Amino acid sequence: MCYYYDIRGIIVPGKKIGDFLIRSTYNDILSKNLIERDYSNKNWPECDIHEKRKNIVLFLNGNNIIQEIVARNNYKGKVNGIFGIGDCLSNFKDQIKYETSICDGQGYFYFASMPGVRVLNQEWDEEGTSPIESIHVYDIDLGSIL
User: Fold this and answer.
1) N or C: which end of the chain has fewer CB within 10 A?
2) Mean pLDDT over residues 97-120, rounded?
3) Within a 10 A sphere around the Cβ of 33, how many other Cβ atoms?
4) Residues 6+ apart with CB under 8 A from 11
5) Residue 69 is part of which domain span?
6) pLDDT in tens, 46-99
């Protein structure tokens, strides 16, 4: 079976990462042959769907609905076409507004101007000069699972 999704797909806060849509069901993802699930770590909860290429993680709520999607590693898509994995937020100060006060203490930056997305930097710094490690898109109404 061939599994395919575009690793350059656009990231839209609160809505999607490429072909993966918030509020889709796990069965929707399976029926489209988008991912091959990685079962290599027995400690991952059943509701955390890790894919073999290591670029996407899906977090399902109790109803098997995708509530949060994470792009990481080699994912090339950009949030609203602006920034992506490996970029530094400080390079985009004129295009996006972020404040360290909107950081949750675990290194995630939230954006008042873009609800439904947060980023994790490789290292925490108030200026946002550390590269982005992962981008999390979550259901605006339900919030982040993590």
Assistant:
1) N
2) 74
3) 12
4) 17, 18, 71, 77, 78, 79, 80, 84, 117, 135, 137
5) 11-138
6) 666 766 678 888 888 888 889 999 999 999 999 999 999 999 888 887 777 665
